[in-house]
From TrEMBL:
Cellular component terms (Gene Ontology): BLOC-1 complex; transport vesicle
Record's keyword annotation contains Cell division: no
Coiled coil ranges: 112-150
Pfam families: Muted (PF14942)
Assigned keywords, A-Z: Coiled coil
Protein name per Swiss-Prot or TrEMBL: Biogenesis of lysosome-related organelles complex 1 subunit 5
Presence of the UniProt keyword Coiled coil in the record: yes
Recorded family membership: Belongs to the BLOC1S5 family.
Domain of life: Eukaryota
């Protein structure tokens, strides 16, 4: 009898299990209908998207992509022409710079030859002046030698 009293007073498993089964049954029925409606709405949306929206998007995409591709090709061609012009301009500038550099080198070489010629002239004049001075001093020494003997 103690076991029976215990099971009636303290053991609530059979009652709780019944309540749990009732709750799960109610929840699944209501949830199942709600999910079914959601799935039907999703099915309609997907069908509508596949039939109407997707073809329109594809048409718009192809039209816009073709136009964008043509514009990109035109821009690419323009950039290519600009690069060629810039390359030609750089080549021209480099050629001009080389010509100026060669002209400067030639001018420098000419200047250096002039300087060497002038140096040779100055050296020759100096040598002649030195000879004149030597002659002058030797004559002066001879003259002095005359006066020293007195």
């Amino acid at each position: 009898d103690v076991g029976e009293i215990y099971s009636r007073l303290l053991d609530h498993r059979p009652v709780i299990q019944g309540e749990i089964r009732y709750f799960v049954k109610e929840f699944e029925e209501k949830r199942g209908l709600r999910e079914l409606r959601v799935l039907e709405n999703l099915k309609k949306t997907i069908f509508e998207t596949n039939e109407h929206v997707l073809p329109k998007c594809e048409q718009a995409m192809h039209a816009n992509l073709n136009e964008a591709f043509k514009r990109l090709q035109a821009a690419n061609d323009m950039i290519h022409r600009l690069q060629e012009r810039e390359h030609e301009e750089r080549k021209l500038q480099a050629d001009k710079l080389m010509a100026r550099e060669e002209k400067c080198i030639a001018h420098w070489e000419e200047f250096m030859k002039e300087q060497q010629n002038k140096q040779a002239e100055v050296d020759e004049e100096h040598r002649k002046a030195m000879e004149r001075l030597k002659e002058q001093y030797s004559e002066m020494e001879k003259e002095l030698a005359k006066y020293v003997s007195f």
